[in-house]
Design goal:
The chain has 126 residues and is of the alpha/beta class. It has one domain: 5'-nuclease (Rossmann fold, 3-Layer(aba) Sandwich). The chain is 47% helix and 14% strand. The chain has six helices and five strands, in the order E-H-H-E-H-H-E-H-H-E-E. Strands 3-2-1-4-5 form a five-stranded parallel sheet.
């Protein structure tokens, strides 16, 4: 199964797995699953680091590589689909919206606690 981790799920999976649901911990640890990490999440974390909201001991990309997760690039197709996504006044987070687009186009289940993502037609699991 292809799983795309949202940014919180990624940070929890890497640093505090107890914050994931039990089933998600098992899914992330299951080597049969292909765990995807969007470049959008790396960008979001970099912004949080640059404004002092998050501190990591090592670069996030090194943690992702060491975990065996796979990077998911942002493609022109993702950007075109993002432009077509309906704008919801209740959910304007550009990173979440890109993850929703990527999950839909790449056939991934989106690992996220955020039920607001359901409105984008993703297969969200938690």
């Amino acid at each position: 199964m292809r799983l795309l981790l949202d940014t919180h799920a990624l940070l929890w999976a890497l640093f505090t797995p107890v914050l994931l649901s039990t089933s998600m911990r098992h899914s992330v640890l299951d080597s049969a699953n292909d765990i995807q990490v969007s470049i959008a999440s790396l960008w979001e974390v970099a912004i949080k680091q640059s404004i002092g909201k998050l501190t990591l001991e090592r670069p996030l990309q090194m943690e992702v590589v060491d975990s065996g997760f796979t990077f998911l690039d942002i493609t022109p197709e993702h950007c075109a689909a993002y432009a077509d996504l309906p704008l919801d006044k209740q959910h304007r987070d550009p990173f979440d919206r890109m993850l929703a687009v990527q999950a839909r186009l790449e056939g991934c289940r989106l690992v996220s606690k955020d039920a607001k993502l359901d409105r984008y037609g993703v297969m969200r699991i938690w």
